[in-house]
Design brief:
Elements: E1 2-7, H1 12-23, E2 28-35, H2 39-49, E3 53-56, H3 66-70, E4 74-75, H4 76-84, E5 91-94, H5 102-110, E6 114-117, H6 120-137, E7 140-143, H7 146-155, E8 163-170, H8 180-183, H9 188-191, H10 201-209, H11 211-224, E9 231-235, E10 241-247, E11 252-256, H12 262-270, H13 285-288, H14 302-313, H15 317-333, H16 341-353, H17 361-378
The protein binds magnesium ion (MG).
Magnesium ion binds at residues 145-147, 216.
Length: 379
């Protein structure tokens, strides 16, 4: 029996994780749940899963709910951080959106937990610091991101020097076929209609701009210790092949399945074992064919190139890219910048701040805040 804490329990990945737990009651038990501000949804989950501890990041969200305070609910970022290092948990699922999840990834790893990581921004903003927290605390980082789960499954027992390159797949998002002129007029409603994956708003916009794939290249760099010239990306519109690994002997392995986050979540909770689960749709070669692949169009999706370049630059650049992108996405969702202007906001922040170094968590948090201010001024 593995005891789980789920951070971001009311979001898309959190709800998928709880769906997995419902099907495997003898395998997983929820001991902690945390959310941002969705009080009613979190209260319903707490009543169903009966965790030992519940936390809500937004302090004001409990106003008018004295019974939840009386039940021991914690509030504020420190309440959530406490849950990330909860002594009776084995696995912390970090499904918080954005750099706000960074401190919880570090807390879980320092406390020696398995961190099932959906919060890719942790590794993008502070990859070396996160890896160091795992080394110091004895924690273990296992990806929930479907592409990185695929890579983990394909790599198996191979050593890093036996991997020639990894090839991440990208769906291409809803604007894969739109020409540059038509992309000027797209709005948030259009960008939120993802062709293959059902996800939260932030990652759905990141998938439409391909910023998500740049974040995933950086995530893969840190998870698998590969230099950027050994990480490639191809567009694969049906999202059946979740990624490829090419080995030094020329063999290429792929992991396949219907696009559904429950499979990579189950894998992150169970790895290296595979529990039976009949509810998850498997790959059917006849129904899924043809599988097609095409190159990324970096002209139409400039955030992809900006993000990968930030990864190559290193130092503060990935944290600046991530923070400015979060600001740009929020502004786009609120109708304050156009789809194409998001890249301008991010590149402006990178020009101003991307050359800085940031070796400590304190410096990362400072540069994150500075990048948010700069990006907001450009919005
Ligand atoms: Mg992904």
């Amino acid at each position: 029996m593995k005891r789980l804490v789920i951070l971001g329990a009311t979001g898309s990945v959190g709800r998928s994780a709880l769906a997995v737990v419902r099907r495997h009651p003898g395998r997983f038990r929820v001991v902690g749940l945390a959310a941002g501000r969705s009080v009613a949804a979190l209260a319903a989950l707490a009543a169903e899963f009966r965790p030992t501890r519940v936390a809500l990041a937004d302090r004001a969200a409990l106003d008018g709910r004295p019974e939840l305070r009386a039940a021991g609910w914690r509030t504020g970022p420190d309440g959530v951080a406490e849950l990330a290092a909860f002594p009776s948990a084995d696995i912390v699922v970090n499904a918080i959106v954005g750099a706000a999840g960074l401190r919880h990834t570090i807390a879980a790893l320092e406390a020696g937990k398995r961190c099932a990581l959906a919060n890719k921004e942790s590794l993008v903003a502070a990859g070396e610091i996160v890896l160091d927290a795992a080394r110091r605390g004895g924690g273990e980082l296992v990806p929930v991101d479907s592409e990185h789960s695929a890579i983990l499954q394909c790599i198996g027992e191979a050593r890093p020097d036996e991997v020639r390159r990894i090839i991440l797949t990208a769906s291409g998002g809803p604007f894969r076929d739109l020409d540059a002129a038509a992309m000027v007029g797209v709005d948030a409603g259009m960008a939120l209609r993802h062709p293959t994956w059902e996800m939260g708003a932030k990652i759905t916009i990141d998938s439409a701009t391909l910023a998500n794939k740049a974040l995933e290249v950086i995530e893969a760099h840190f998870l698998y210790g590969l230099p950027y010239d050994r990480i490639d990306v191809v567009v694969h519109p049906t999202s059946i092949v979740h990624s490829f690994v090419e080995f030094v002997d020329g063999s290429v392995l792929a992991q396949m399945g219907e696009p559904n986050m429950e499979l990579p979540i189950l894998h992150a909770l169970s790895w290296p074992r595979r529990p039976p689960d009949r509810a998850l749709c498997t790959f059917d070669p006849l129904r899924s064919s043809p599988l097609t692949f095409e190159p990324v169009d970096t002209e139409r999706f400039p955030l992809f190139g900006l993000g990968v370049e930030a990864g190559r630059t290193g130092g503060a650049a990935p944290a600046v890219f991530n923070a400015a992108n979060e600001v740009a996405v929020k502004a786009f969702l609120e109708g304050r910048v156009s789809f194409r202007r998001m890249a301008g906001v991010v590149s402006g922040a990178l020009d101003a701040l991307g050359g800085r170094t940031a070796d400590s968590l304190k410096e990362i948090l400072e540069v994150d805040a500075a990048a948010r201010r700069h990006a907001a001024s450009l919005v």
